[in-house]
Design a protein that fits this description.
Largest sheet: 5 strands, parallel
Number of domains: 1
CATH superfamily: HAD superfamily/HAD-like
CATH topology: Rossmann fold
CATH class: Alpha Beta
Order of helices and strands: HHEEEHEHEHEHEH
Strand order of the largest sheet: 5-4-1-6-7
Number of helices: 7
Keywords: Signal
């Protein structure tokens, strides 16, 4: 086989792999779309009225990377992904372990977390703390530290009937979130999108939670 044909085969293989990822993810979402009593999928307009996905993340090695020298910055693709969610007005939150001694409330612990991250930040743009508002959930006690269910339960309880997504780099946390009713996605895996595609997040939000 000549070099040109070989390159063409590689490109075709990569394109096929990407297409398969999209088909699998899209099929998952399509199966989740609500149906009316006659078995017909409800209209997109009606679905949009109920759409309220909320995307929670782990922080370290999911959105933020800590280098060997102790400096921190965005994980590849994280800044643009948060920006895409922001443009679509999809709320985001953090579910992250910090020492309970950092404060008596989530707000106090979140403020200390921000100080710690900002003090070592070396990225070209600051971390988008404003996007997360008061949706930064941290353990009040050592017993609440992930993978204990407490933080996910608090996030779920505060989300009303919105569909909640959880994205993290560890399989253990993804499994725990899934068992508690979150739509799970393990980030950074080979041959898959770095994060759950934003369009699929929008579609998942149109499914009424159980």
């Amino acid at each position: 086989m000549n070099r040109s044909a070989s390159k063409g085969s590689v490109r075709a293989s990569l394109a096929l792999s990407a297409a398969l990822v999209w088909v699998v993810l899209s099929a998952t979402v399509s199966a989740a779309l609500p149906e009316d009593a006659s078995g017909v999928t409800r209209t997109a307009a009606a679905a949009r009225e109920r759409a309220c996905p909320i995307v929670y993340f782990d922080l370290g090695e999911t959105l933020v990377h800590t280098a060997d020298d102790g400096s921190t910055g965005y994980q590849p693709g994280a800044a643009s992904y948060l920006r895409a969610l922001r443009l679509r007005r999809i709320p985001v939150g953090l579910i992250t372990n910090v020492p309970p001694s950092w404060g008596t409330t989530d707000a106090e612990r979140a403020a200390r977390l921000r100080q710690e991250v900002d003090a070592t930040w070396r990225g070209p743009a600051p971390f988008a703390w404003k996007d997360f508002g008061d949706r930064v959930l941290t353990p009040r006690t050592e017993a609440e530290r992930k993978p204990a269910p407490a933080l996910w339960q608090r996030a779920k309880a505060g989300s009303g009937r919105c569909r909640v997504v959880y994205q993290a780099e560890t399989a253990e946390e993804v499994r725990a979130a899934s068992s508690l009713g979150f739509v799970p996605y393990q980030v950074g895996r080979p041959h898959r999108p770095a994060f759950l595609p934003v369009r699929l997040v929008e579609l998942l939000g149109r499914r009424s939670p159980a």
